[in-house]
Amino acid sequence: MNIGWYFKMAWRESRRSRGRLILFASSIILGIAALVAINSFDANLRENIESQSKELLGADLRVFSSKPLLPEQEAIIKSLGESIEAEQSTEVSFASMILFPKTGDTRLVAIRALEGDFPYYGKMSTNPSSAATEFRKKQATVIDKTLMIQFGVEVGDIVKIGALEFEVSGSLLGVPGQTGFGSAVAPAVFIPKRYLEQTGLVQKGSRIENLAYYKVEDSEKLAALIEEVKPQLKKNNLRFTTVQKRKEDVADAFSFANKFLNLVAFLALLLGCIGVASSIHVYIKSKVKTVAVLRCIGMTGWQSFSVFLIQILAMGIIGSILGAILGSSIQMLLPTVFSSFLPVDVVMKISWSSILLGIITGIIVSILFALWPLLSIRNISPLNTLRESDGAKNSFDFLRMGVLVLIGIFIAGFAYFQIRDFKSVLLFCGFLIFSLGILIGISALIIWAVKKFFPSRFPYVLRQGLSNLYRPNNQTLILVTCIGLGTALISTLFFTQDLLISQVEFAGTGNQPNMILFDIQKDQAEELEEMAAGFELPIIQKVPLITMRLNELNGKSIEELSEDPDNDVSRGMLNREARVTFRGEMVESESLTEGEFTGNFEGFEDVPVSIAERYQNLMDLKLGDRLVFDVHGTLISTIVTSIRKVDWTKLQTNFFIIFPLGVLEEAPFTNVLVTRVPNNEVSAKFQQSVVTKFPNVSAVDLSLILKTVEDLLNKVSFVIRFMALFSIITGLLILVGSVIISRYQRVKESVLLRTIGGTRKQILTIYFVEYFILGSLASLSGILLALLACWLLAMYSFKMVFIPGILPIFMIYIVITGLTVLIGMLNSAGILSKSPLEVLRME
Amino acid sequence: MNSILSVKNLSKHFSNNKLSLTVLDNINFDIMPGESVSIVGASGSGKTTLLGLCAGLDQPSSGEIVLNGTKLNNLNEDERAILRNKDVGFVFQNFQLIPTLTALENVMVPLELQGAKNVRKIASDLLARVGLKDRAKHYPSELSGGEQQRVALARAFCNSPKILFADEPTGNLDDSTGALVENLLFEINRELGTTLILVTHDLELAKKTQRVIRLKGGKILSDEINEGIANDPTLYASTDQV
Ligand SMILES: Nc1ncnc2c1ncn2[C@@H]1O[C@H](COP(=O)(O)OP(=O)(O)OP(=O)(O)O)[C@@H](O)[C@H]1O
Ligand SMILES: [Mg+2]
Fold it and tell me: Is the peptide bond before A538 cis (omega within 30 degrees of 0)?
């Protein structure tokens, strides 16, 4: 027999059952759409980061230092690249207050004093566009556009920065090397560097970043230059970034978002898989009779299997292609959704590799998940023609076991491909199997319990509905597993989203401090306190702050450590500038976990210090470890004598490292003052007089930051919700599918009931009882599984306490159960609207 | 001449949990090519079970069946299927058409399975032969019971089987429709020289076959030649009415 005949037969046979096949295809379509959309977006983002990598930095090389430059450092920066005629720009950047004389408003901004033609790649985009060059020529500035809007600043207005006034040339829309993210708290304000000195803002101890940018046209020369200056820069404590490094950093920053998106894609696909398996399961069930006849006429098991495999394969291919098309269109929406987070302008192109991957995945999924139910065709006995029975003989089938193993491998493999973390994959798969087990167990329990405690005195319709749960051909197992698993996946998304969002919410009310003043010089502290008293503001905290750098850890230098393969602590962490305070006792938000807190000490050798648990973990430290710090040129050796637990969510100045009194008093530290302002008006007036009197002092109004963070969160949660929507729609589709499936099993029965004289109301009530119990138990089990999953996630992954909201739980329960019942009843109503005869003939 | 169907010491038991039920108990008979045989007996006497076993739809508990020279016991399900496709035709009490295929397609399936040529032509001719030429494109749900059974007849004869099994082919039809189907069955059977095994509880129908095997409680009660019938030309007289 030729192959063509199978196709012909498959085509003919499908004519009357395409509706059911479409159900199957729709699961594939949505699953693959999510996958293709997310993978395409990912590919496009990567490609754009790659192609715009120079714009990410704005130059070929950036050298920087977060301390005031020493003369020899300045000399190096200047001479760098001279030999190859590299272009050069320099920048000094720091946080400061800006004053808008027109309204008297003040605001913390990031001042970027620039000299040279930076950016060399990409452009500083301003409105008007000439402003990007104009401001460099005179005593002028360009200001972040949100700031312009917020304070009603117009081009030509005057603003005051430190002691100097600047004319506003235009608003800043964007500049290479800066993402929307960073500018939210301290928006950028560019000024020409030659006026920096006169502003009087650069003082000892303030946190200043010095940067230099280089442009080297020839990439070989650049590589040579970097090789050449590397040791020199290192020796002089100058750090540098190349385009390559910057690219990697940006990619890293996006890897978290990526992981989340990949997880969403994976969940959507997984839901699709469940949809495939359940719809094919029912499809095959409805084909038992046909297969029996075919076998009677002389078709072998494999032949009949092939006919249906062809149908499913065809639908799988069509579904995958449609899914890929849908996904590629949705992908075009994603840049809009993510626009505020993207470091580059993402130009969306069709990603053929993602489409190909999507289609292949779709086909594999269709075959793999259809095979389990499909293989049972081989076991349908021709005897079914003579005597009606449940369908396939249920003997042990090695092939079907093989398929189960393949499915397991596929899920694990795919999970690894999307998440790329072996441990997470293991946990994930383990939990999936556990959930399946639980759900199967629950269905068995339902069947057992209904049989065992059957309420034989209940009214007939109730009894009939209940007995539907355990009679032959019942749908308890398939509905509970599908709806349960779907609910679990959806609720997990919901709950983690809440979890992530609640994590960042501040307790910004009550008597919490809401204003922080920093960069206060030693001699300004007293006067500033008096000024606060004049405004009747309480000094909630006054904390000295001093920056230092780790020099040695347990006798090993930082260079040695960062080259040591046994050392797990990142170079960035080791090199990080530590912000340290000194005080005689612990504060409210701290508690001792190990050792003893030392409040007073004399001398600079073996100073007892206290570290926070978080720092302990990050740096892999223990009691008794010896740390040598470089405090503005002076080395101080310390011993870790206590470890504190710190409540970081309290709005206070908290520190990783605390020195005792008596050591750092003579070092160049600045003060931080924490206070509480009663309202915006007082806040504005106070900030204004502080800025006028002490231009170098910066004030942060937390309510403003709170608002910024809130905006950001709204954007994040919008993205999360948007992505979760995919999974939810797929899940709902499966729900619809699972319930529609049951229709085919109940047709005959309801028609018989009607023929015998059952009223529509009675029959609908029977279904209501059945679907309500199934929907309730399935959604509740799903929710419980999700709660468990989130609790575990919170404990071990996010390290926080998970307190689920009652409302979302209730909502999910109502929605899922309601939908199950509704779809179930609608379905049955569809049958009831036809005449019994019509339906009987359809059989 | 060799028998086309030979049944030796055939028994069939069903066990359901603890209960064991003997449905067929040591059955023996031989059927010659071209013979028409009816199996009669009360409801539950094991007729359908016997038919299923003879056609290789099920495996016996003990004993052996040789169908057209092939011992069924040694074949697996698929090999038996191929044998059925080649040599066996079926007519069922409840028609058993494939609901998703049209009448014509239903008739075509067995031949197509063989990879035969001219399938459509042969099938259309057979459909015409049973008087359903203009219903070829209709689905089973759009046909009456009698029409469905005629399609089933056409399908059964489509592969020119050596042996035809029919289980109560008229059981679901009214008398006149039943008679129509009966006559078609015998007529085509005679034209093609097919061996016919007919299960029925209708003694009138049984009388029209050359031989009658009576079953009772799973045992053969009698196995007799219908003397007067074998050569009686009047038996098929009514076929012209179709
Ligand atoms: N799968 C089975 N399991 C248990 N018992 C069975 C099974 N199949 C048939 N039987 C029993 O075997 C006996 C014979 O059944 P069979 O269908 O062969 O009878 P029959 O002669 O065809 O009856 P009818 O004329 O009513 O069709 C019956 O008592 C039936 O209950
Ligand atoms: Mg019978």
Answer: no
Facing B90 at nearest CB: one of A8, A296, A842: A296
Q: Which CATH number is B148's domain given?
A: 3.40.50.300
The H-or-E segment that residue B46 falls in is: none
Residue B168 lies in a domain: yes
Instruction: Identify which of A13, A118, A104 has the alpha carbon closest to the alpha carbon of residue A64.
Output: A118
When divided into structural domains, chain B yields a total of: 1
Interval B70-109: pLDDT, tens: 999 888 878 888 888 888 998 888 888 888 888 998 998 8
* Nearest residue (CA) to ligand 1, atom 2: B14
Q: Mean pLDDT throughout A159-176? A: 88
In chain A, where the domains are located: 1-53+255-420, 54-249, 440-509+701-843, 539-675
- CB of A842 within 8 Å of a chain B CB? The answer is yes
Residue of A nearest to B101 (CA): A13
Type of residue at A650? K
Report pLDDT digits (tens) over A68-105: 778 888 888 888 777 777 888 989 888 788 888 888 88
State which residues have CB under 5 angstroms from ligand 2, the bound ion: B 48
Other beta carbons within 10 angstroms of residue A178's beta carbon come to 18
> Could you tell me if B73 and B62 are in contact, meaning their C-beta atoms sit under 8 angstroms apart?
no
Considering the domain boundaries, does residue B22 fall inside one? yes
Peptide bond into A119 cis (omega under 30): yes
Predicted confidence (pLDDT) per residue in A805-832, tens digit: 788 889 889 988 998 888 878 777 766 6
Alpha carbon of A414: minimum distance to chain B alpha carbons (Å): 37
Q: Which of A3, A16, A296 is best to mutate for the B interface (most B CBs within 10 A)? A: A296
Residue B93: φ, ψ to 5°: -60, -45
The interface pTM score, or ipTM, of the predicted complex is 0.81
Which helix (H) or strand (E) covers residue A35, if one does?
helix A18-51
Query: Tens digits of per-residue pLDDT, B190-208?
Result: 888 899 999 988 888 888 8
Indicate if ligand 1 lies below 6 Å from the C-beta of B16. yes
Out of A387, A388, A393, mutate this one to test ligand 1's pocket (max ligand atoms within 8 Å of CB): namely A387
DSSP code for A843: -
Say yes or no to pLDDT of A356 above 90. yes
Query: Using a 6 Å cutoff on CB, does residue B159 contact ligand 1?
Result: no
Domain containing B161: what range?
Answer: 5-226
How does DSSP assign A350-380, residue by residue?
Answer: --HHHHHHHHHHHHHHHHHHHHHHHHGGGGB
Are residues B98 and A294, on separate chains, in Cβ contact within 8 Å?
A: yes
Q: What is the rounded distance in angstroms from the CA atom of residue A136 to the CA atom of residue A134?
A: 5
Asked if residue B19 has pLDDT above 60, the reply is: yes
In a mutagenesis test of the B interface, which of A293, A377, A387 is the best target, namely the one with the most B β-carbons within 10 Å?
A293
Among A9, A16, A300, the residue with its CB nearest the CB of B81 is: A300
Tell me if B9 is assigned to some domain.
yes
Position A393 scores a pLDDT of: 56
Report if residue B239 sits inside a domain. Answer: no
Cβ of B42 closer than 6 Å to ligand 1, yes or no, is no
Q: Is the CB of B45 under 6 A from ligand 1?
A: yes
Helix (H) or strand (E) holding A63: strand A61-65
pLDDT mean over A213-234: 81
